[in-house]
Each structure stands twice: as C-alpha cells, then as structure tokens.
Amino acid sequence: MTVPCVRVPREAGERTRQRLADADLVDETREIEFDDGALYIPVTDPTAVPDDLDVTTRDLAVRETQTMPADLLGFDPTYERLGDIVIVDEDDPGRAAEIADAIMDSSLPVRTVVDRASKVKGQQRVRDWTVLAGDGTETVHREHGCEFALDIATVYFSPRLATERHRVADQVSADERTLDMFAGVGPFAVPFAARDATAVGVDVNPDAVAYLRENARRNGVAERVTAVCGDVREVATVPPAGVDPVERVPTVAQAPDESLDATDDRVAFGDWADRLVMNLPHSADEFLDTAVALAGEECVLHYYDIQHEDDPYGPGERAIRAAAEPAYDVTVETRHTVRSYAPHELNVCLDVRLTRE
Q1: Is 11 in a helix, a strand, or coil?
Q2: What is the pLDDT of residue 265?
Q3: Is residue 141 part of a domain?
Q4: CATH number of residue 12's parent domain
Q5: Residue at 148 is within a domain
Q6: Model-level pTM?
C-alpha cells in the first residue's frame, strides 16, 4: 500500500526519524525502508511535516510486530492520541469499553483511554471525561519538536490544531514581540519563543498558566516566555511613557503556583506586540478592542473564528476593521480554513496586518 513518507539520505536518517518522532508524526504501523542511499520514513500527516524535509509516497510494508486495535476488533475504530492518552468519542458505553480494551491490548504506546463525556464548557474551556482504561488524565504531548505537559481534565488542548500552530509559528522571526491572548498551556507561545521571539501568554485558567510556565522551562525557553493569569481585557493596559512594556510582568522563573491577581495589579504591555494570537472562536470579537490596544506600530493578528460556510471570513474581517480603523490600516494577508467544525460551519483564521496610520 502506498503511504506518505519522508525521504532522507541515510546519514541523516536517525536524526530525521527522531525529529519526526518528537512531533508525533512517525507512522508506527509501517516499516522504514532503505533504498539507493536513502531512507523512507513513513509519516501519519504529510501536511504537518516541516517544509525543509522531502515528502513523497512509497509502498512500505506493514510492520508485522504491530498489533493495532482494528486487528483485535475486526473494525477500524475512530480515536486520537494525545501523548500516552487515547481519546475516543462513543455514545454507547459497551462499544466504548470494547474499543478501550482493544487499544490497551494493542501495540500502541498508551497509558490511559478516555471517552468524551461533555462538550467544551465554561470560561476555562474544559470538558468532562470518562476514564475507560488505565489511570490518570495528565500526559506529555510532543509536537513539532516541543513538549507540552498538560492535564486534559483541567485545561483545554486540541492535538488536531498541530498543523495550524506550526503554520503560524513558521511565520515568527527572531526578536519579535508576540502575545497570545488565550495561551492555554503554551502551544503557540513556546514554539514562538523557540524561534527566539519574546512571548507573552495570558489565560484565565490558573492550571493552564502553571502548565505554560512548566512547558517554557521544559523546552528551555523560560527566559523568553512571560505567563500571566487573568482576563486579558482586565490585566492589559497601555504603559505610561518611558515605562518598559513588560517590566512588571511576572515571568516563568517564578514559582509555578504564582499568578497575577488582576484585582490588585495590571500589566503594562499594551501598544507593544508585533504579533497577536486570538484563538478563541465564537467570542474573539469581544476582545478586539483590547487587541488593538496591545498592537504595536505594525502587528500581525491571527484571528480565529467559526462561521457558516456561506460567509466564513466576512464577519471576522468586518469586526476587525470596525475595531482597528482608522487608527490602523487593515490588510488581510491570508484567509485560511483550519478545519470543518460542524455541518455547514468552518473554523477559520484571518492573518491580518495592522499598520498604524
């Protein structure tokens, strides 16, 4: 069977395999093949492979030592992996238990199998889970060379957005000043800092902020990441003249349980950012006035939205223009569909350049 794979010279094979493994991209169900001086490494998602690697297709043998859940069930179940946790979404408890048992008995490197028990809910965007097999909801997820510790029971994280996060991170340059207004455990902020940018991450969830700080340390970028706990509309202000915009922001070097109390203090880092991430679909428009206040002289805004397929980009573009003009010239550089969200609804991103008039 022809499958996507990365072709590399033999001498770069192990280094490349490890790089792909760190991003959780190696297809463990297929054999790695050597032919005519090159290694062919099978990958699960060719669109997520870094651009500097050569992606091709090849007929690679199935790994005989691998026992997959489908081999035990007689059908191919739907699931996704997040670190060593496997997530299923089943309405039938009996079917869910059967799938969980097969996953645990398979060759997948899994510690826990969980079933979605609710939709994402509340200001902190968490959901309920039913643990079907194994124990614990904390894991370490690897994505494009970075590691993210997280607990799915207390924070929001979607592995499905890995390709989108990589797309945005690829645009970041060294010495940029970046700010993620809804940072979670750091899947944007940490890769930005890994590219030698300064990264500020704000989130209302104290558990997410604690993991953001841990993940900055885990990935060796603690000196370039600042984590702030609070509603970005409440903790962000425009700094007085002559004040360093990030001078008063608590950094990840502090104890993990420390956070900013927005009722006692505010952080002066407005009128500062070169790049802003607004990944809060359904309600990002409520934060656009704050985003404009945070933007520097020129700023790229990554605005995420969920809209009907008949006009997926128009509402967001109109909202951005209403908030930013005439103070800023607004140029939409990219209109990008991230994924299908629901029937006739799309999760989209607008990459918008704001240039102060």
Answers
A1: helix
A2: 38
A3: no
A4: 3.30.70.2580
A5: no
A6: 0.78
